Amino acid sequence: MSRGKLVLFEGLDRTGKTTQSDILVERLQPDVTLIKFPERSTEIGALIDRYLKDKTFELPDQAVHLLFSANRWEMAERIKQLLLQGTHVVLDRYVYSGIAYSAAKHTDKMDRSWCLQPDRGLPRPDLTIFLTSDDAENELRAGFGEERYEKSEFQQEVKRQFIEVFKALEDNSQEQNLVQIINITGKSVEQVANEVWELTEPVVRAPTDSKNTEILY
Ligand code: NYM
Ligand code: MG
């Protein structure tokens, strides 16, 4: 039996990640599980949820970064077990959001390499799809501004950080994780979903050694 594949959606806020991951999960039924980060139902997740919603709840940025990472480690064993039993796992955000949002706060003392460190050893995605849009289109979408980080200038810095992270992955020939970028500007949900499927189908079809869950870096 081939192991399941780990397919990740990344992007700025309000770029349709949740919509697209739901559609992909429908297409991959029945052997598929959706996991969204932050996973707000755990104790660490509850703290993260409060931090995102309550803009008066202050924590050091380093501590917040480590909470997001700890939240992934809480779920890591479950992700590994699902993959090994042949179930595909679709992720709505993961490590690269962790790096991009934190590094955007402090490009000096919390640079991208500092940010990656606590995530080292987590399961590596087989495919990462970065949903992006022209300019600040995401800021016009319903709900933008409700949570911490949903501010125009900050989003643009996060976007720059995402692009740098993916450039570094592309330059690393050891890297097995395939990164694909979809620009959603001017496209319907269905059009984007079809592009997602064209990218995902060959990855989920490719057989993989059942014992092999690659680790990150
Ligand atoms: N976020 C998410 C981080 O800052 N670091 C992380 O590691 C992850 C997984 O949480 N603005 C931020 C990005 C989002 C916020 O996520 C909530 P979502 O997908 O918008 O619910
Ligand atoms: Mg959001």
TrEMBL record:
Pathway given for this chain reads:
Pyrimidine metabolism; dTTP biosynthesis
**Classification via Pfam families:** Thymidylate_kin (PF02223)
Cellular component terms, GO, for this chain's entry?
A: cytosol; nucleus
The enzyme's main class, written as a single word, is: transferase
Q: Secretion signal: which residues?
A: none
GO biological process assignments: dTDP biosynthetic process; dTTP biosynthetic process; dUDP biosynthetic process
As recorded in UniProt, its EC number(s) are 2.7.4.9
Q: Start and end of every Thymidylate kinase-like domain?
A: 9-195
Keywords attached to this entry: ATP-binding, Kinase, Nucleotide biosynthesis, Nucleotide-binding, Transferase
Which parts form a coiled-coil structure per UniProt? none
Q: Which GO terms describe its molecular function?
A: ATP binding; dTMP kinase activity; nucleoside diphosphate kinase activity
Question: HAMAP family of this UniProt entry?
Answer: Thymidylate_kinase
What family does the Swiss-Prot or TrEMBL record give for this protein?
Answer: Belongs to the thymidylate kinase family.
PANTHER family assigned: THYMIDYLATE KINASE (PTHR10344:SF1)
Q: Give the protein name, as stated in the record.
A: Thymidylate kinase
